[in-house]
Amino acid sequence: MKAATFHPAAIVAIRSFPAGVLRELGKAIFELQKLNSGNxxxxxxxxxxxxxxxxxxxxxSGIYRTVCxxxxxxxxxxxxxxxxxxxxxxxxxxxxxxxxxxELLHExx
Length: 109
Prior knowledge:
The protein is an alpha+beta fold and 109 residues long.
């Protein structure tokens, strides 16, 4: 099973999520760790990047997104988490996710 590595800013955002969302998110990340052997490419629509999973969790308090990169030899990289407030993912969130992915891939974090 692959390890999960979190960008520090993603941890801060995730800690603000409600308890029920945290449980579902934990299960989803665990499934990514177990199931992703790195053999199948996953394309995130919003992030337009192979090997990126956008985990989508909805509860009565809102819609929550967590962005993970699954192709790293270090394991699953959790690069960005946010509360979705519009129908489309904001450019700011996409740019921030790409920046954080570069930071983790080049081990600046």
